[in-house]
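[Discussion] Sanity-checking designs against the backbone

I'm trying to build intuition for which residues belong where. Below is a structure token string of 166 positions. I'd appreciate it if someone posts a full sequence so I can compare it with mine line by line.
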């Protein structure tokens, strides 16, 4: 019995040490990847999610963006094609959530290019979104510019990439 307790304590200590190592010594690229995975998870919501939960989700999403964020998107409704600042972004998120039943968002191919001083990064990614009961996923290529602000990577700019379509 003592051996089992010792093994459990040792395992817990190792897991704690690993978690602290990941938090303090992760590369900027792995931190950005983790944040983008969390962004996709927070942008997804199940069909039975209540209004307050969606509001909380919208507020978590806003936290990934800088206060002066700009979005330039093509192929979307005019009212969200140009967004400047967190306030407009929050309104766009809440409006989109109100018109949707459920979403599942993924970023399957994240390409990160850190600048030399590790204070900004360019990110190219593909957004795959399963929306409501649509047969085909929404696919959009995006460019992000991230800036390190007080040790946290925040999205400063988002721009759609025009791709060839049939």
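Best answer:
Here's mine. Compare freely.
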């Amino acid at each position: 019995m003592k051996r089992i307790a010792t093994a459990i304590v040792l395992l817990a200590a190792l897991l704690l040490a690993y978690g602290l190592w990941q938090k303090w010594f992760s590369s900027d690229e792995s931190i950005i990847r983790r944040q983008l995975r969390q962004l996709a998870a927070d942008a997804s919501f199940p069909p039975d999610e209540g209004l307050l939960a969606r509001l909380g989700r919208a507020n978590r999403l806003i936290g990934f963006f800088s206060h002066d964020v700009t979005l330039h998107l093509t192929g979307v409704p005019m009212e969200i094609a140009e967004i400047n600042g967190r306030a407009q972004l929050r309104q766009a998120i809440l409006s989109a959530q109100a018109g949707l039943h459920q979403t599942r968002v993924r970023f399957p191919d994240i390409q990160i290019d850190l600048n030399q001083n590790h204070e900004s990064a360019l990110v190219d990614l593909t957004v795959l979104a399963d929306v409501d009961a649509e047969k085909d996923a929404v696919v959009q290529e995006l460019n992000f510019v991230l800036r390190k602000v007080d040790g946290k990577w925040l999205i400063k700019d988002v721009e759609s990439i025009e791709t060839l379509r049939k």
